[in-house]
Amino acid sequence: MATQYLDDVIQGHRVIHTLDVADLAAGEHKFMFRIATDALSQWQHLPVMVFKGKKPGKKIIITAGVHGDEYNGVLAAQKTARELVGKELAGTVTIVPMINLTGMLNHSRDFYSADPDASPCNLNRFFPGDANGNEANRFIHALWHHLLQPNADLAIDLHTQTSGTVYPLYVFADFRLEQAIEMARLINPDAILNDPGDAGVLETMWNSSGIPSITIEVGMGRYTELTLIDRTVNGIFNILKHHELLQGEVDAVIPCLEGQEITSIRAEIGGFVIPQVSMMDKVEQNQLVAIQYDNFGDELKRYYAPNGGTVLSYNVESIRAPGSLVVRLIH
Ligand SMILES: [Zn+2]
């Protein structure tokens, strides 16, 4: 595949239809990637930044915004790009900071289609897409085949917890892949989960294509957490130095909690839930973790840990629908 340039220039940036970083000149490139039309036959474009070193080396792709309400991931991708400006690289870093454009415009995790047959959907279950599928499938097909897949030896996908709930700095890695667990540890997160993967998830798609990858959860949905963003960028630079894309000393890996499974405690009925635990607290079996109140403010229900573990997530938005997350533990 070769980089295919179209005639258009949008806001000063050349429009491409396919990307192959191998044929780019060394230096810093900003493109608009033409991904698909909307229902009004208007083309949609994803911003893409490529930092290509004069010296050969590995190709790393950083993506964010597969879920449209996970802005800390987007901000970490953008900050990584700002910090790469003017750096001498060996290899290529490609950054795609926002993928789910319709979700972002709606402050929503989901992708929105104007197809009356399609409900809003989780794009991170659609990889590698389908050229003959519905709108989301076609969108992901173009993204995967024309932009992502040809340009990576290693990959990092940036997320946050779903809106209304919070994570620490938390990494998913398939522990069967040496380079995935190694990247996860180089982030120096608060917790890592062994993630054998799920069908349609970008991280799983990368791994099953022979490209080791990790998913990083940068705190909470929607709201800005600068400390976690800075730690993420620092971790990404640690990975770049370890793989010799950048010169410099790699920060020592600080051992963190590495879990094999999680337990999600979910609201049994609707109501207002106030957590009784803090992030990364160790809890014992049967310990109180949350109290739920009805519309009058009277106590409705108490939630207890079904087994011992460490608090990985809890709700920061008090109103909880039946089945929605209250507390998540990692073991
Ligand atoms: Zn996400």
Structure description:
Residues 56-242 form the Succinylglutamate desuccinylase/Aspartoacylase catalytic domain. This is Succinylglutamate desuccinylase/Aspartoacylase catalytic domain-containing protein. The chain is of the alpha/beta class and 331 residues long. It folds into two domains: 4-257, Zn peptidases (Aminopeptidase); 261-330, OB fold (Dihydrolipoamide Acetyltransferase, E2P) (Beta Barrel). It contains six helices and 20 strands. The chain has helices at residues 71-84, 101-105, 135-148, 178-186, 202-208, 226-242, and strands spanning 4-10, 13-18, 27-37, 43-52, 55-64, 90-96, 154-159, 165-166, 169-173, 191-194, 213-218, 257-259, 262-266, 271-275, 282-283, 288-293, 299-304, 309-315, 319-320, 325-330. Helix 1 (71-84) links the parallel strand 5 and strand 6. It is globular, with a radius of gyration of 21 Å. The N and C termini lie far apart (44 Å).
List keywords for this structure.
single chain; 331 residues; alpha/beta; Aminopeptidase; OB fold (Dihydrolipoamide Acetyltransferase, E2P); 2 domains; eleven-stranded mixed β-sheet; five-stranded antiparallel β-sheet; 20% helix; binds zinc ion; AstE_AspA_cat; hydrolase activity, acting on ester bonds; metal-binding; hydrolase; zinc
In CATH terms, the superfamily of the largest domain is Zn peptidases
Q: Which CATH top level class of the largest domain fits? A: Alpha Beta
**What is the molecular shape?**
globular
Terminal residue distance: 44 Å
State the CATH architecture of the largest domain. 3-Layer(aba) Sandwich
What's the total number of strands? 20
Low-confidence stretches: none
Structural category is alpha/beta
Which ions and ligands are bound to the chains? zinc ion
- The strand line-up of the biggest sheet is 1-2-3-4-6-5-7-11-9-10-12
Strand content: 35-45%
The radius of gyration over CA amounts to: 21 Å
What's the CATH topology label of the largest domain?
Answer: Aminopeptidase
The total tally of domains equals 2
Give, in order, the helices and strands: EEEEEHEHHEEEHEHEHEEEEEEEEE
- Can you summarize the main beta sheet? 11 strands, mixed
